[in-house]
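Ticket #4471: complex job returned nothing on first submit. Input attached below:
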Amino acid sequence: MSAADFTALSPVIVIAVAAIAVMMLIAFSRSHILTVLLTVTGLAGSFFSLFPAAGLVPMAVTPLIVIDGYSLFYMGLILMSGFVVTVLSYSYLESREENPEEFYLLLLLAVLGSMVLVSARHFASFFLGLEVLTVSLYALVAYVREAARSNEAGLKYLVLAGVSSAFLLFGMALVYAGLGTMEFGRIAEKVSIAADNTLVISGFALTVVGIGFKLALVPFHMWTPDVYEGAPAPVAAFIATASKGAVFALLLRFLGGADLQAYRPLFLIFSLLSITSMLAGNLLALFQQNVKRILAYSSIAHLGYLVVAFLAEGRLAATAVSYYLAAYFVTMLGAFGVVTLLSGKKDDAESLDDYRGLAVQRPWLAGIFTVMLLSLAGIPLTAGFMGKFYVVAAGANSALWLLVVILAASSAIGLFYYLRIVAVLFMPGAEEKDAHGPISFSGGFMTVCLAAVLFWLGVYPSFLINLIRTAMSAVH
Amino acid sequence: MILLWLIVIPLAGGAIAWYAGRFRTAWPRWISLITMLLMSWVSVNIWILHYASLKEMDLHGPWILEVRLSWIPQLGAGFHLGADGLSLIFVLLTAFLGLAAVASSWTEIRERVGFFYLNLLWILAGIIGVFLAIDLFLFYFFWELMLVPMYFLIALWGHENRRYAAFKFFIFTQAGGLLMLISILGLYFVHGKAAGDYSFDYPVLLGTSMSTGTEFWLMLGFFVAFAVKLPVVPVHNWLPDAHTEAPTAGSVVLAGLLLKTGAYGLIRFVVPLFPRASAEFAPAAMILAVIGIIYGAVTAFGQSDLKRLVAYTSVSHMGFVLLGVFVWSELALQGALMQIVCHGLATGALFIIVGALQERIHTRDMGRMSGLWEAAPRMAAAALFFALASLGLPGLGNFVGEFLVLLGAYKTSVAITVVAAAGIVGATVYSLWIVQRVFHGPNEQKWKIPDFSVREMAIMLAMMLSLIWLGIYPQPVFNTSKLAISNLKMIAAPGATTEDIRPAPETEKRLADKSISKTTPSKNLPSPLAKEGQITFLWQREDRRDFIIAYDLLSKSLGGLR
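Support reply: We reran it on our side without changes. The output follows.
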């Protein structure tokens, strides 16, 4: 490998080094704050090494990894998500777990796995990245050992993710058997020739099952509500954003090159997944009483919207997916951030009753949560509006009218449960001001920043659009 | 840039009012009042300054004022505001009713006053934005933006069933809005693919050529969004709940302004952007309008909740607006516009009266009210006045509006006009019913209530004077909107002349030489929609001498439209 290769790969290398450094630090001294600082330094270092790497793109480092504008953009998103989750976890873990330090080691590994995923261009790196990510998540989900539900969620995630990995591996093997290559680019080229090869079709179907599990598309969504409910709130935020975002970015790279509209079987499969996710996600959320479960179903629906953009063709689709994901990252992190901040020593703030009267007790937090929910609902001034706009635009551009109309209808249904939470926030509630305990400064500051970014992206999206367009020029 | 101020002033005023509310509950009221006075001053100033140029053919394009800032150039969406006579009338109405809304909630709102005025002023900012935006992206942005504060206004300060009403309102309008978004994007791509120029700019998108099917579906997306707001009957049922449960200021803004955004959208966007599809759809829309007129009137009569009754009258009155828009002759459009303004004033005033009544006797149930005239004569007199306005008493503005709409519709279809006119009878029944049930008769419940205060009488008087002014001398409204309307008509029917209102000398000549016969060529056939020959039940017989005389007389008595 040349020096240029190292520079291009430096964001990934820095994270790997940071993970080892955190491990060493824990071996010498158990200090929560030091670990957090080291983690943040690692994330920031990796983030800043994106800029020198950006000068070299696009660049294939080994047959496995490609560093281009696209992967750097998603790495940036994942690193930011990792940063927010780290800050949120600090106050969260400070109050409940006696040994919180290893959490950050696992988190860094999960970030590493996600970063490999977004830069993978080969089945091997795809699978490696996915496993690094998933294995860290098993432990992260079950990290709070005293909580029975956390353990249950971890076990559930372990079993289901294991099964889905098996599906994925088998699918990859079949595709390899049918097409004789594991490189995404060559697969995309060959797939149109081997359009009616049963081996390839079933291989793709199995791969889609595996990916569908990770993205929690209906009908592979069963684990999501339970895991979101049981996992510590910051971990749920990470699963909802970085983990799903990385897999989606991979999906776009994997199949975005193939002309999906021409390859009917896959197109049909994804259309169905999208429709069921949008409808089931929004409809099932209506019946939930638990905020974390509502957010889980909401994220199912949002992934369904994303698939609409994914099915659209051309440059607009990639831009739409990227914008939507960026907006979705900010919004979900903000929403889970508020949940984290409100969580007490024992339990997370998850029942709707915990939020009653928040607008009177903590107007700022209630305001931020309202804004996040409105962004999830896609109301103007927020990033979610621009995201939804982009997705509908991508769908309309490719004349996917059925999908677009279902998107509109289901997001009108979705409004109902977002508004329900908002209504609860503004209900007269418990009188005592300290129902929730003190709010940590770092976490509070983080959610304020996220809200500011949300408005910025919603009102003046030009900056991000330009960034995405520059990044995407490498792909399309 | 003055248009930008119209949006910035209420936004800033709202934020200041909210902040001031943390210190003293009275401050937000005064700050909002000052904000709205400033708004009214600015908008009246614009009107006076440009009044002369509004009447004549102007040389600098359709907009008397324009703001164009770069916003999202990558998407072809700009911050493009523009005002012509049409939007100016809506802006004036917004400023006036905004003032009334602020004043009418002076004593009603006692909790979270700052936040209340923040929401109220931000709704007004959103509404002004809707009336001024001529970039479709920006328009959609404002369209959605005004929903959130309205939701809060209903959900937080409303009456018993407020949460249900707020949900219903939000979901109905949002669903309609999303269909519009799909249509906007459809139009954007159809135009972009044909012209290679991707833009949301309204002037650019006008005259986009597309296949009949595409045009129809895109038109329908817009129509549904506006129909929900207007409301048109099958999608109206958020309205009675929202109007009834909202606090007084909310009801005033809902009835007076929010419904009008739907009407504005129909006039500004649906017909000009999709002229052929609208012509095709016109008969269906007119039938929906008539159904709305009758249904609203009949249902209103069946209500025992006073506020709900007033809410249903809106459904009926807005039917006239829909009818006027889809007849699409200058006469009918002027009538629709007049109806929009006067309905805003009269119904707004009725909501203020009902709100004041509820504040005093804590019920809206008409069964528990009677004989309030002796308890509160000033309030009762005001109610009588606005009830009469609402039923279309000649001399008040609503009469002019309804009459012109019916006159315009008469040229298109007699059947529809006849049925719609029956709605006026219904209006008479329910309006007088309000006065009889609530204010006449013996005061059985022995109500002793304070009469209208000076503040309330001031609001009432201002609205009464405006209605009388519009009823006796509606010419300023016609003058203001005339050019804008003929522009829109020209856009909607390229090639068609704007001479569907005959010049007076010609009429007189034709009447004088008595040459009117069954064979008179239909030179004055009403609308360009009709000229397309797609409305099959057109009334084509021009030989109704008495009609022409009546029309001429009315035109003269109204000061003429020409």
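Strands of chain A lie at 59-61, 65-67. Closing as resolved unless it happens again.
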